[in-house]
């Protein structure tokens, strides 16, 4: 839980938008990071979550996953999003919940080995925004970490 509080503190201090969106770190462990944000500060004219807010929570969930992995492995670096694709599948008229889960340890292992060797590495992540037990948004992002 301490690492989740640290991650949330970093988000709120390094990326001020996360405070305005009221993003919270709901879960973080070795394989999964989950961010949430209430509807109210992220609402649009249709009383659903603004598409830009959904995108932002998703991209930040991936960023948070990479940041958390770097912290777990005592590494530092600059994390940036290089490329992304997003599919908006369903409207969200409640809490925004984004989940980044990596079940293939080989992907992470290759990423970490490359970063150790070159000081630069890329990782492709999939983030889902879930609502009422269904995928409301599917985000695929390529993140780069460099020294």
- The strand count comes to 6
Please estimate the helix content: 25-40%
CATH topology: Thiol Ester Dehydrase, Chain A
Q: What general outline do the C-alpha atoms trace? A: globular
CATH superfamily: Hotdog Thioesterase
Oligomer category: single chain
Largest sheet: 6 strands, antiparallel
Strand percentage lies at: 35-45%
The CATH architecture can be named as: Roll
Distance between the termini: 28 Å
User: What is the tally of helical segments?
Assistant: 4
Q: Class in CATH?
A: Alpha Beta
Mean pLDDT: 96
| Series of H and E elements | HHEEHEEHEE
- Count of separate structural domains: 1
Query: How would you write the strand order of the largest sheet?
Result: 1-2-4-5-6-3
- By secondary-structure content and strand pairing, the structural class works out as alpha+beta
| Radius of gyration, whole Å | 15 Å
Low-confidence stretches: none
Helix and strand arrangement:
Blueprint: H1 2-14, H2 17-20, E1 24-28, E2 32-37, H3 51-72, E3 78-88, E4 96-101, H4 105-118, E5 120-131, E6 134-146
Antiparallel strand pairs: 1-2, 2-4, 3-6, 4-5, 5-6
3D architecture notes:
The chain has 147 residues and is an alpha+beta fold. It has a single domain (2-146), classed as Thiol Ester Dehydrase, Chain A, CATH 3.10.129.10. The chain contains four helices and six strands. The chain has helices at 2-14, 17-20, 51-72, 105-118; strands at 24-28, 32-37, 78-88, 96-101, 120-131, 134-146. The protein has a six-stranded antiparallel sheet. It is globular and about 50 Å long.
């Amino acid at each position: 839980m301490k690492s989740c509080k640290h991650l949330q503190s970093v988000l709120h201090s390094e990326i001020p938008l996360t405070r305005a969106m009221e993003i919270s770190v709901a879960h973080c462990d070795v394989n999964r990071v989950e961010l949430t944000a209430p509807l109210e500060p992220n609402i649009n004219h249709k009383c659903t979550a603004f598409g830009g807010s959904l995108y932002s929570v998703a991209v930040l969930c991936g960023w948070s996953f990479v940041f958390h992995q770097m912290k777990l492995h005592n590494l530092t670096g600059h994390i940036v999003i290089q490329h992304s694709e997003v599919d908006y599948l369903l409207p969200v008229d409640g809490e925004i919940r984004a989940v980044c889960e990596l079940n293939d340890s080989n992907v992470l292992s290759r990423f970490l080995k490359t970063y150790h060797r070159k000081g630069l590495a890329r990782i492709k992540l999939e983030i889902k925004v879930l609502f009422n037990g269904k995928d409301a948004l599917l985000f695929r992002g390529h993140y780069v970490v460099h020294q």
